[in-house]
Amino acid sequence: MNERKSIGKGLRFDIFRRDQFTCRYCGRRPPEVVLEVDHLVPIAQGGENSEPNLVTSCDECNRGKSAKSLVGAPPSADIDPAFLEIEQEAAEMRRYLRAKEGRDAALEEVVRELDIAWCEAAGTDWYPSALPHWIRIFGPEMVEKALLATAPKWRFGKFGTRLDAVKYIRGTLNVMARRENA
Q1: Residue ranges per structural domain of the chain
Q2: What does the pLDDT average to over 36-54?
Q3: pTM listed for this prediction
């Protein structure tokens, strides 16, 4: 009886590259589908984790196939590999841009919320312009705690200038980070 062993990441990538990041059954490619490595002859029927027995399959085709043998699977489409490589790279760049836009929008929303929290707690109409930078370094929760801990000092005139308050908040963040990492 064959023991089921996982396919290593290196071999998996080699199969994807060999098959030009294209499902051998339906021809679809990322980002439209998620690719998997499929066995032509299933492990349960004596197949092995070897290159000749492995093909690129989208998740839908692989689930539909189940444990059926696909000896004689259709060959890879005759497509220009350079075109596919550029298409894959472009798809990855578009995914990055969408993720970056989402991250930037979320950061703006967090800055807006922390601005409001600071202004209300400190009784002021200004907020530290370093908020986005601090959020990226320390995370929004820690920045909020530091702002709320520092706000009463601003409210009661414990700082001479805004710069003094900003330096104090940054120092508070540094102390909080050290305590968290201790």
Answers
A1: 9-79, 104-181
A2: 85
A3: 0.55
The string of pLDDT tens digits covering residues 16-30 is: 889 888 888 888 888
- The CA-based dihedral angle spanning residues 105, 108, 114, 118, taken in that order and rounded to the nearest 10 degrees: -170
pLDDT of the residue at 66: 56
Burial (CB count within 10 angstroms: exposed 0-12, middle 13-18, buried 19+), residue 76: middle
**Thinking of the domain 9-79, which architecture would CATH place it in?**
Orthogonal Bundle (1.10)
- Compute the distance between CA of residue 148 and CA of residue 34 in angstroms, rounded to an integer: 44
Going 78 to 83 to 84 to 85, the CA torsion angle's sign is positive
Instruction: Tell me the HSE value of 177 on the side-chain side, using a 13 A CA sphere.
Output: 13
The contacts of residue 145 (CB under 8 Å, 6+ apart) are: 176
